[in-house]
Design a protein that fits this description.
Helix 1 crosses helix 6. It is built from 6 helices and 6 strands. The longest helix has 26 residues. The protein is α/β, with parallel strands linked by helices. It is globular and about 40 Å long. 44% of the residues lie in helices and 19% in strands.
C-alpha cells in the first residue's frame, strides 16, 4: 500500500523531514512511501494512496503557495479522498516562526477534503505534526520517522477495517 509524502522545500530542511517520514512509512510492512513535490504530484498519486503526509516551510504563517495550488487544483477529486488518512509537518527558520499555524492550515485543507487527520505520536510530542526550526535536529528527524510509522500503521488498520464492511 502507498502513502504519499508531498512536500515543498527551498532550503532542504522540509525535504530532509520528508525523507525521514518516508523512512518511517517504509519501515511498516506492506507500505511504500511515494515522495513527490508539487511540480511532480498527480491526481492519481492522491487517489492511489491510503494516506497523505504534506510538509511545508512556513510562509507568513501558512503553507507554501505551491502546495496550496495543488490542493486547490485537485478539488475535483475531493469526494474520492474521504476517509483517507492525512498528517502534516513544517519547518521554519525561527523557533517561533508559525510552524503550528502552517500545520493547522494543511490539516484544515485535509479536513475539507474529508480526510481523517492524524497528529504526531505522543512519544514524538503528541501535537499537530512534526516541526523543525532551521536544519532538523536528530530529535526532529526521529519524530519524523515516528510520524511516518504512525500514519502507515493506522492506514493498515483502517484498510483491514474496510475489508470487513
Amino acid at each position: 500500500m502507498q502513502i504519499l509524502v508531498l512536500y515543498y522545500s527551498r532550503t532542504g530542511n522540509t525535504q530532509h523531514l520528508a525523507e525521514k517520514i518516508a523512512e518511517g512509512v517504509n519501515s511498516i510492512d506492506t507500505f511504500q512511501a511515494l515522495i513527490k513535490t508539487p511540480s511532480e504530484v498527480t491526481r492519481e498519486d492522491f487517489l492511489r494512496s491510503e494516506g497523505i503526509i504534506i510538509g511545508s516551510p512556513v510562509y507568513f504563517g501558512g503553507m507554501a503557495a505551491e502546495l496550496k495550488k495543488v490542493l486547490d487544483d485537485f478539488v475535483d477529486i475531493r469526494p474520492k479522498m474521504e476517509n483517507k488518512l492525512g498528517a502534516a509537518f513544517a519547518s521554519s527558520y525561527h523557533p517561533t516562526g508559525g510552524k503550528e499555524t502552517t500545520i493547522l492550515a494543511i490539516l484544515q485543507a485535509m479536513l475539507i477534503y474529508g480526510m481523517i487527520v492524524v497528529g504526531d505520536p505522543i512519544k514524538a510530542g503528541g501535537h499537530y505534526g512534526v516541526a523543525s526550526s532551521g536544519s532538523p535536529s536528530p530529535s526532529d528527524l526521529e519524530d519524523a520517522i515516528q510520524l511516518g510509522q504512525r500514519l502507515a500503521s493506522l492506514a493498515g488498520t483502517f484498510s483491514l477495517g474496510k475489508g470487513n464492511s
